[in-house]
Write a structure and sequence with these properties.
homodimer; Rossmann fold; 3 domains; six-stranded parallel sheet; 18% strand; DNA-binding
DNA sequence: CTGAAAGCGCTTACAG
DNA sequence: CTGAAAGCGCTTACAG
C-alpha cells in the first residue's frame, strides 16, 4: 500500500478536513477562522513539521518587497562604498527572482542635510526595509524612530547608534579591532618605543568607534609586556598641508616608531612619510580602499585592519531577505571578521 | 492604451505564434522544432532579453539534483572539516527548496583505500556533481576521469591536482600564502636571524601545496632586506616523541628565532615549545582548527595563516548550484582570501 | 466562518 | 514537428 502524501497545504487541508484557503488563513494568522478549526490545523502543522515552500510562496505572491539603502556617496573613500553596493548586487543576483526592489540613496558624508533629505525621501517611499550607514547620530536616531513607527525594518552597517535597536547590526567589534592592532605592535615594537595614535577627523559624528579602537589598543598594550609610550591625538585636518605641518612639528620632538591611524585616512600619513622619505616609521590603518591600498603596495602602510565591504552589503541584504521573505530569525549583532591586510594578501581579499 | 505584457514563455509564444511547449523546446535546445520556428523564437528571446524565472523553473520541475561531498572524516584536524560541511549546510538552508539532495562521504586521510572505496560508492549513486578534497592524487585522477565520462561535475576544495580541470577550484594560492608569511617575518625577524621551515608529514600525497608555500616564502625573503638563514626540513613524525627528539637535537645546534610549519600541525611544535618553556621562538602555522587555536590563545603560536573553512563549503556548493540550477557560468579558479589569524581576531573569524 | 477557482511562470507527459 | 492540458505549492480575490 502506497500512500502518497500530498504536499504541504493540501495535505494539511486533507487531514483537517477543510479547504486550503482555511489552512492559508491560519498559516498567516489571519482572522475569520473558528477557534476549534484553527487549533486543529495548528496541531496538524506541528505534527507534520510543515515548512512552507518558499519558491511557491514567492511565485504565487504578487507582493514586492522594497528595500532602500542609505550610504555615503562618492567621496575620498569612494571605492570603499562600492563594496556594500556590490555585495547587495551580488545577493540580488542570487536571490533576485524573489520579488525584491532595491533603491539606492547616497548622501555626502560632510553634509548633514544631504543625509537628512535622503531619509525624508526614503520615508515617503513606503519601503519595507532599509540598510543604513549611520554617519550622523541625531539624524539617524530620528530616522530610526520614524521607521519604527511605520514598521519599516532597518539594518545598520559600519557602525551603531547607542540605544537604538536595529533588526541587525553588521560591522566590526571596534574594541577588539583595537586589540588586534595592539597585538601586532607587540611584534613591531620594543619596550620603550613611542607610538602615535592619530584620529584624522573631518566628520563630527561617529567618533565612538574610534574611541573604542583606542581603548582596545591601549588595553592590549597595558596587558602586554611591551611598555611603550602611547600618545593619542585628534587632528582636525582638512588637507595634506595641515597634516604635514602637524607631523613635521610632532616628529621633530618625538621619536615615533609607529603611527596608528584609527580611521580610514592612513593614506594621508603615508603620503607624508613618502614625501619625507621616512621609511623607519611603521604605519597601521583601517579601511580597504584604493588610496590606502596604494600605500600598502609601496610599503608606506604596513598593515590595514579591515572588514570586507562587499560582505557587509551581502549580509545586510540577507538580513532583510531572511526577515521578510524566508521569515527566519535574524541575528541582532553580526560582527564581521577583523581582517589583517598586507601587501601580500590584499589581492585575494575581495574574494 | 495599456498593453499588459504577458510573462516570459507565454509572451514569447504569443509573439511567435506558437504554443509554449514549442518555446520550451527551443529554450532547452531540444529536438523536434522546425528550423524556421526555432530561429524566430530565438530572435524573440533575444529581443525580449528573456530571463527565465528560476523559482517557477524549480517549482515545476520534478528534477532533483544530487550532489555528493567527499571529505576527510574525523581526524586530528577534525574540527576543521566541520567547516566545509557547515558551509554547505548553510548554503542548503538558503537555497534549500531548490530540489537539491546532498550526500556526505567521509574517508580516512591516512587510508588510501577508504578514499578509493568512497569514490566507488559515489560513482554508483548517479550524482550530478561532487565536491572533493583531493587528498590522494592518483585516486583522485582516476575518480575525476570516471566522473567526466559520466558527465558528473566535480569541484575541488583545499587543493588541486595537476592536469585535471574541475568545474571549479576553491582554495588558496599557496605560493602567495607563503609570501604572506615571508612578509610577516619581515617584522618578526632581524637580519641574520635563523628560520626553520617544517613540513611535519604523515600523508604521502598533496605535498605540492607545501612546496609552493615554501617557494613563496623564500621568494619574498630573498626580495626583502631581511637576510636570514632559512632551513627547510621534512619531518616524517608519527607523534610528539619524534617531534620532540628531533627539535631537541636541532635546536641544540641552531639558534632558531622562528619556526614556520607549512601544514596544519603547528600545534605539535607549539606543544613542544610549551613543554620546554621556550617563549623566545616565534611560531607561524596554517589551519583554523581547535588544536592550533588552543596554542594561538596561549601565545605559543603567533600567527595562523588560514582560509575560512565554512566559506569553502559554501562556495563549492554555490558553484554546483550556479552550474546546474541557475545555469550561470562558474569561475574556474576561486582563490580564497589568505587570512592572518591571531589571538585577538580569531573569535570573529568564523563569521 | 469557509470553500471553489484562477493564477504565479514554468515543466512534463501525452496526443496528434 | 506542434499544441492542449495538468501540475508544481502556494496566494488571492470572490462568492457564499
Amino acid at each position: 500500500m502506497k500512500i502518497v502524501e500530498l504536499s504541504g497545504v493540501k495535505e494539511i487541508a486533507r487531514r483537517a478536513n477543510v479547504s486550503i484557503a482555511t489552512v492559508d488563513r491560519v498559516l498567516h494568522n489571519r482572522t475569520g477562522v473558528a477557534q476549534k478549526t484553527k487549533e486543529k490545523i495548528l496541531s496538524i502543522i506541528k505534527d507534520m513539521d510543515y515548512k512552507p515552500n518558499i519558491l511557491a510562496k514567492r511565485l504565487a505572491s504578487k507582493r514586492i518587497y522594497k528595500f532602500g539603502i542609505l550610504i555615503p556617496q562618492e567621496c575620498s573613500e569612494a571605492e570603499y562604498w562600492n563594496g556594500p553596493v556590490s555585495g547587495i548586487k551580488e545577493a540580488l543576483s542570487e536571490f533576485g527572482d524573489f520579488g525584491v526592489e532595491i533603491s539606492y540613496h547616497f548622501f555626502d558624508k560632510k553634509d548633514r542635510d544631504s543625509f537628512k533629505s535622503q531619509t525624508e525621501t526614503m520615508l515617503k517611499m513606503q519601503l519595507d526595509g532599509v540598510i543604513v550607514v549611520p554617519v550622523f547620530i541625531d539624524e539617524t536616531r530620528d530616522f530610526a524612530m520614524r521607521c519604527s513607527e511605520r514598521r519599516v525594518q532597518f539594518v545598520f552597517i559600519e557602525s551603531e547608534i547607542p540605544q537604538i535597536s536595529p533588526l541587525s547590526y553588521i560591522g566590526q567589534d571596534y574594541y577588539q579591532a583595537g586589540r588586534v592592532v595592539g597585538n601586532l605592535c607587540q611584534y613591531l615594537l620594543r619596550p620603550g618605543d613611542d607610538v602615535l595614535v592619530l584620529n584624522i577627523s573631518k566628520a563630527p559624528d561617529i567618533q565612538e568607534s574610534l574611541q573604542e579602537k583606542l581603548m582596545g589598543f591601549e588595553a592590549f598594550l597595558s596587558e602586554s609586556d611591551v611598555h611603550c609610550k602611547v600618545d593619542s591625538l585628534d587632528v582636525d585636518a582638512k588637507g595634506m598641508d595641515e597634516i604635514s605641518s602637524f607631523l613635521d612639528h610632532y616628529l621633530s620632538e618625538n621619536s615615533v616608531k609607529l603611527i596608528y591611524v584609527t580611521n580610514s585616512r592612513a593614506y594621508m600619513v603615508a603620503k607624508y612619510l613618502e614625501d619625507r622619505g621616512f621609511k623607519h616609521i611603521r604605519l597601521v590603518g583601517n579601511g580597504y580602499h584604493d588610496k590606502n591600498l596604494n600605500y600598502l603596495k609601496n610599503g608606506y602602510i604596513d598593515f590595514l585592519i579591515c572588514q570586507k565591504p562587499l560582505e557587509q552589503g551581502y549580509k545586510a541584504f540577507l538580513a532583510l531577505y531572511e526577515h521578510f521573505i524566508a521569515k527566519r530569525k535574524v541575528e541582532r549583532t553580526q560582527y564581521t571578521p577583523i581582517d589583517i591586510v598586507t601587501k601580500e594578501n590584499y589581492k585575494y581579499y575581495e574574494n
